Amino acid sequence: MAKFELKLPKMGESVAEATVTNWLKNIGDTIEADEPVLEIATDKVDSEVPSEVDGVLVEILFNTDDVVQVGQTMAIIETSSDATDIDTPEITPQDTESIEQVTATVTAAKQTVATPVVVSSTQGRFYSPLVKKMAQKENILQAELDAIPGTGKDGRVSKNDMLDYIKNRGITPEVPKSVTASTNAAPVSVNGADEIIEMTRMGKLIAHHMVASVQTSAHVQSFIEADVTNIWNWRKKVKASFMNREGENLTFTPIFMEAVAKALKDFPMMNIALDGDNIIKRKNINLGMAAALPGGNLIVPVIKNADQLNLVGMTKAVNDLAARARDNKLKPDDIQGGTYTVTNVGTFGSIMGTPIINQPQVGILALGAIRKVPAVIETPDGDFIGIRYKMFLSHSYDHRVVNGALGGQFVKAVADYLEAWDVNKEI
């Protein structure tokens, strides 16, 4: 019998750890290759960890809610294959001492590898990424962190040390006055007829990100109304043939995404990120596409290099990400690397919205519902009143680095691309 170590796989850029949310298998259960063994959660997405081998689960090394580093062994699976088994050589008494020395060296090496990557403080003290993350979340300064007594190896501060300190902390973390005012509002009374519903883990993350974004960026909005009559009529004409040829449903979303990608090429200073006092001008145009999940939460899968896709490629990318978002099958890489975000509030009937920026991006575009409205039609023979299909584009941008001129010009460019749509376009 051989033993296989099930490790936490690499889950994409910037993802170094995950939280165990649920074990799908118990000790003694038979496992087939590619069968999910446990569920994990990062600050980006929830996913499953499958087994790479057939076998029996014999040991579980982490409990639910434990934090695991990438590369750490989470479980031991016993396989029937003996391909990895080796014959044990006969050991003579004189070899015992040397073997013990080697064993001690190997054990020390394993402990070193299993220990999370740590960083040093100004006092020469070491902290794990989890501890640093907890300190940042609770607004614990470095000097305060250095003063916390540690019960771990070499006096290191453990997760439990942090939890105990935070619980008994005598001061409240400093927050902006505006936030304090809102949180100090009149308490909510609950009677016997009211139902208390705990927020989901993802719901809590979304709430945190939304509040953090508003506190970080100076939000300002620009609005414009676009005439999409040509797009409406063209799609109605070609959607059946497109489905027969490509096997994909042609929605309005890929058309809008194509226009946004073109506008970002025209205005590259909208395709940036702000890191402190430094502006990072992104080379690639990666469009985030806000999608509603069945449970009511929101997730933003990313279309990589959107400016390099034609309409067929954009349609396939949009439909694939939307389908996997609904089925909760997105991978961590699918929601990373976005440089600009588009959200379609019109899906739910809203004619416009004021979306919150997806940090560290500097802009987000909300697409309103398409409506039939009376409009003035200008012709060489004069002006007429006609029925047109129109929609509002709502552009939220970070006024720290994007002024009103750039923010307005960008959303105007998107509208221009939509209104200039060729009704005879071939795909």
List the helices and strands and how they pair.
Blueprint: E1 2-7, E2 17-23, E3 30-31, E4 36-41, E5 46-50, E6 55-60, E7 67-69, E8 73-79, H1 96-114, E9 119-120, E10 126-127, H2 129-137, H3 142-146, H4 159-167, H5 177-183, H6 201-216, E11 219-227, H7 229-246, H8 252-266, E12 272-275, E13 278-281, E14 287-289, E15 291-292, E16 298-299, E17 302-303, H9 311-326, E18 340-344, E19 363-367, E20 371-379, E21 382-398, H10 404-419
Parallel strand pairs: 14-18, 18-19
Antiparallel strand pairs: 1-8, 2-4, 2-7, 3-6, 4-5, 6-8, 9-10, 11-21, 12-13, 14-17, 15-16, 19-21, 20-21
Fold and architecture overview:
By secondary structure, the protein is of the alpha+beta class. Residues 83-89, 112-123 and 171-183 have low confidence and may be disordered. The longest helix has 19 residues, at 96-114. The protein is globular and about 95 Å long. It starts with a strand and ends in an 8-residue tail after the last helix. The protein is 30% helix and 25% strand. Helix 8 (252-266) packs across helix 9. It has 3 domains: 2-83, RNA polymerase II/Efflux pump adaptor protein, barrel-sandwich hybrid domain (OB fold (Dihydrolipoamide Acetyltransferase, E2P), Beta Barrel), CATH 2.40.50.100; 119-168, Dihydrolipoamide Transferase (Irregular), CATH 4.10.320.10; 218-419, Chloramphenicol acetyltransferase-like domain (Chloramphenicol Acetyltransferase, 2-Layer Sandwich), CATH 3.30.559.10.
